[in-house]
Amino acid sequence: MFSDAEFPWWIAGGHAIEFAVGHPFRPHADIDVLLLRKDQLLIQRSLKGWDCWAADPPGTLRPWRQGEVLPPHVSDI
Known about the structure:
By secondary structure, the protein is an alpha+beta fold. It has one domain (9-63). The chain contains two helices and four strands. It has helices spanning 13-21, 40-46, and strands spanning 9-12, 32-35, 53-56, 60-63. The longest helix has 9 residues, at 13-21. It is globular and about 40 Å long.
């Protein structure tokens, strides 16, 4: 999906650990993809048409509006 991305990205979390050690530990229901904060609007363009949400601490999930630069305290979308 991100093979033509104009920004650096990488897999993190459980899948990354399992890749590093060479075998799975347990099933996963998600894939953690990380990118640099400065590239957040580029990922929004890559996900055009997706229903994107921001996890606004301390636990509020809210729509991530098109073109919105997320504040420093929001680190999950």
